[in-house]
Automatic annotation (TrEMBL):
Lineage, highest ranks first: Bacteria, Pseudomonadati, Pseudomonadota, Alphaproteobacteria, Hyphomicrobiales
UniProt keyword ATP-binding, yes or no: yes
Catalysed reactions listed for this entry: biotin + L-lysyl-[protein] + ATP = N(6)-biotinyl-L-lysyl-[protein] + AMP + diphosphate + H(+)
Keywords, alphabetical: ATP-binding, Biotin, Ligase, Nucleotide-binding
Protein name, per record: biotin--[biotin carboxyl-carrier protein] ligase
Family annotation (Pfam families): BPL_C, BPL_LplA_LipB
InterPro entries associated with the record: aa-tRNA-synth_II/BPL/LPL, Biotin_CoA_COase_ligase, BPL_C, BPL_LPL_catalytic, Transcriptional_repressor_C
Record EC number: 6.3.4.15
Domain of life (superkingdom): Bacteria
Length: 274
């Protein structure tokens, strides 16, 4: 089976551009926007040669994994549009639950989840299984004119392989015992995106998205450390606020609201955040 859009996505006007191999799906999506594309375009591939993660880190997508980018043309403020990263996390979590058989037991460890979620969301943009990173989300934007910008929402999923030489635990669907093709996962993702985008409702439904995200949040209520511009903030992960900032209460009772940073859980949080 090749890549296909879910009928719900096609009915809502989403389009699909599929590749066997790409440099970066985000880069292609932004190129299409600069060339005049009107958005609602999914760019997908099972192999990505030069994908990127947060802070310019490489994100490898070997043959059989999923690289997908949704291009949107946005005429609202960038701060609101940035919360679509949380929509993407929920959509991917929903898609994974839809395609991974219930017999595949993915008991959480590491960050520790007690709510029965097989897939957890790590602030701001990772999806975990058994405490290990299985997917990452990267938002990139470019101004088109005074009133509009293009937003590329990149989603990379370890379907058949995961990196071994990284400083954090990583896994893949195959390693977890799930036999799922990238095409099958994308079909479910395009459907789940449409549903969660409707809930977001151009930002008006952000509180509902925030509550749904918290129900899947990794490490909620536990000890965390966040590296922010060379400094480390430690404490208890209490919530994400109305602007989706990461909220920590430290040992003195002071509350820290963090807009960007690298989060570490458990023993790593207690010792260091390097």
């Amino acid at each position: 089976m090749g890549f296909q859009l879910a009928p719900t996505a096609a009915a809502e006007g989403f389009r699909l551009e599929a590749h066997d191999s790409v440099g970066s799906t985000n880069a292609i999506a932004l190129e299409r926007a600069r060339a005049g594309d009107l958005g609602k375009l999914w760019v997908v591939s099972k192999k990505q040669e030069s994908g990127r993660g947060r802070r310019g880190r490489a994100w490898a997508t070997p043959e059989g994994n999923l690289a997908a980018t949704l291009l949107l043309i946005v005429d609202r403020d960038l701060k609101t549009a940035a919360t679509l990263g949380f929509v993407a996390g929920l959509a991917l979590s929903d898609a994974l639950e839809a395609v991974v058989p219930g017999r595949v037991a993915i008991a959480a460890d590491g960050a520790g989840d007690r709510r029965g979620n097989r897939f957890e969301l790590k602030w701001p943009n990772d999806v975990l299984a058994k405490g290990a990173k299985m997917a990452g989300i990267l938002l990139e934007s470019t101004m088109l004119d005074a009133d509009r910008f293009a937003l590329a929402i990149g989603i990379g999923v370890n379907v058949v392989a995961h990196p071994e030489d990284v400083p954090y635990p990583a896994t893949s669907l195959k390693a977890l015992g799930a036999d799922c093709a990238a095409e099958t996962l994308f079909l479910a993702l395009s459907d789940a995106w449409s549903e969660n985008m409707r809930l977001w409702n151009e930002g008006r439904g952000l509180e509902l998205i925030r509550q749904r995200w918290l129900a899947h949040a990794a490490g909620l209520g536990g000890q965390v450390a966040v590296r922010v511009e060379g400094n480390v903030v430690r404490g208890v992960f209490e919530t994400i606020d109305e602007d989706c900032r990461f909220v920590i209460r430290d040992d003195t009772g002071a509350v820290h609201k963090i807009a960007a940073g690298d989060v570490h859980f458990g023993a790593v949080a207690s010792a260091s955040a390097t």
